[in-house]
Amino acid sequence: MHQPDIRLQATIWIWVLSFPCLIACVPIVKLSENGVALPYILLLVTGISTISIWLFSMRIDSCHEEQVQVLKKRIEVLESVACLDELEGKFKALDR
Question: In angstroms, how far apart are the furthest CA atoms of the chain?
Answer without folding.
Answer: 96
